From TrEMBL:
GO terms for molecular function: imidazolonepropionase activity. The keyword DNA-binding does not apply. Pathway: Amino-acid degradation; L-histidine degradation into L-glutamate; N-formimidoyl-L-glutamate from L-histidine: step 3/3. Keywords: Cytoplasm, Histidine metabolism, Hydrolase, Iron, Metal-binding, Zinc. This is Imidazolonepropionase. Catalyzes the hydrolytic cleavage of the carbon-nitrogen bond in imidazolone-5-propanoate to yield N-formimidoyl-L-glutamate. It is the third step in the universal histidine degradation pathway. The lineage of its organism: Bacteria, Pseudomonadati, Pseudomonadota, Gammaproteobacteria, Enterobacterales. N-formimidoyl-L-glutamate binds at Y162, N337, G339.
Length: 445
């Protein structure tokens, strides 16, 4: 391959790349109970390769030293692991208030019905969000976002859904826009006005769906405040008829759809999302084979949310075996929210996906890279290390991808690169460490 490098290009040299490129298959051997097992790895591993970055994108990936460096900047990562940046494809990050006291009440035996009757539950978050200024929401949301950025997240989805009227849904999405403008991270905003029925429409949910379809959705779409439309299609949310009305409105405006579906029961929401060629179906613990067949035909991503499963102490797991059988892509996400998954750690969720849902580490890595990118409509530009893709990647002080989700409690991130630039806030300390090791010829094992 012939490449003419520019002085402004950057070569990330001597790396072990977990490309997540499905075209690159690697063999592996394992020894379990004395038996040798051979198979294929889907990490897309390339040993001792250079990752060449031009501006915001990956220019090329070549064996180390194949291209003369000329005057390029070279960063020798000394055979450390590089992966795509993590993608958190389902969050409710912007909200007001705190529901830790409710959780404590539940742990002490108070029922959700009792808590809700006293103004708790999701409506307490709606009230707190409505009563918070945009500035207050941005301050608390920034803290949550900082934690995810520090772990290596480079792309994240954020939903509205705690405003539930035009003014406050717009306020939430304006905060999302402000966070996107002020942080080195790509944010995909989603309209989730159909999250729950607000108190003022408690006895007329159809009228609320009318408000969403006739006012909130078209107004905020015209202001370019979101990329996709979401809905909570469930017995405690919105029924199929109401969901279809929402999706039909979105379709007329060419807006992609997705859905919180089959979390508590099987209403057939996944089939409806698939009918509208939706980006993703999320939660899906009660999804059946008929719904999975529909997802397989439509190419819709199944987003698994083990944080909520864990926090709610659920027992019915998503149908992983059937999803594998039908080749449905599975993404993994934090579902960060105040009521059911207050975890600002995608690495923790990756671990949970293995332990609670039985996914392999390779499936989990695909779930926070290539499949998560697909769930956000970014399959052609994000989630892989490949020429032409965005130069969003992480250098880890690790040798294998499984290390990142195996040992929690410390952060092995060395560099967080976003759009070709080193952005991790603590990278100067790591740089000093690396310089010391280089100068003193110490092998870092």
């Amino acid at each position: 391959m012939s490449i003419e490098l520019r002085d402004t290009d950057v070569i990330w040299r001597n790396a072990k790349l977990a490309t997540m490129n499905p075209a690159i298959k690697n063999t592996y051997s394992a020894n379990v109970d004395g038996d040798s097992i051979d198979g294929l790895s889907n990490y897309g591993i390339l040993e001792q390769h250079d990752l060449i970055v031009r501006d915001e994108k990956i220019l090329a990936i070549l064996p180390t030293g194949r291209v003369p460096a000329n005057q390029c900047k070279i960063i020798d990562v000394e055979q450390r692991l590089i992966t795509p940046g993590l993608i958190d494809c389902h969050t409710h990050l912007v909200f007001g208030g705190n529901r830790a006291s409710e959780w404590e009440q539940r742990l002490n035996g108070v029922s959700y019905e009792e808590i809700s009757a006293k103004g708790g539950g999701i409506n307490s978050t709606v009230n707190a969000t409505r009563n918070s200024s945009a500035q207050q929401l941005e301050i608390v949301s920034q803290k949550r976002l900082n934690a995810l950025i520090a772990e290596g997240v480079t792309t994240i989805e954020m939903k509205s859904g705690y405003g539930l009227d035009l003014i406050n849904e717009e306020k939430q999405l304006n905060v999302v826009r402000a966070l996107a403008q002020k942080n080195p991270i790509e944010i995909s905003p989603t309209l989730l006005s159909a999250h729950t029925v607000p108190p003022e429409y408690k006895y007329d949910p159809d009228a609320y769906i009318d408000l969403v379809c006739d006012s909130i959705l078209p107004t905020l779409w015209q202001k370019q405040l979101f990329e996709a439309v979401d809905v909570f299609c469930e017995t405690v949310g919105f029924n199929l008829k109401q969901t279809k009305r929402l999706f039909a409105t979105a379709k007329r405006l060419n807006i992609p759809v997705k859905g919180h579906v089959e979390q508590l029961s099987n209403l057939g929401g996944s089939e409806l999302v698939a009918e509208y060629q939706g980006l993703s179906v999320d939660h899906i613990e009660h999804l059946d084979e008929k719904g999975i067949e529909a997802l397989s035909r439509s190419g819709t991503v199944a987003v698994l949310l083990p944080g909520a499963f864990y926090f709610l102490r659920e027992t019915k797991r998503p149908p992983i075996a059937l999803l594998r059988q039908y080749g449905v892509p599975m993404a993994i996400s934090t579902d960060f929210n105040p009521g059911t998954s207050p975890f600002a750690s995608l690495r923790l969720i990756m671990n949970m996906a293995c332990v609670q849902f039985g996914l392999t580490p390779e499936e989990v890595w695909q779930g926070v890279t290539i499949h998560a990118a697909r769930a956000l409509g970014r399959a052609d530009s994000h989630g892989q290390l490949a020429a032409g893709f965005m130069a969003d990647f992480i250098v880890w002080d690790a040798q294998n991808p499984v290390d990142i989700l195996y040992e929690l409690g410390h952060n092995p991130l060395v560099y967080r690169v976003y759009h070709g630039e080193i952005m991790h806030r603590d990278h100067l300390n790591r740089l000093s460490e690396l310089n010391y090791l280089n100068e003193n010829s110490i092998c870092d094992n």
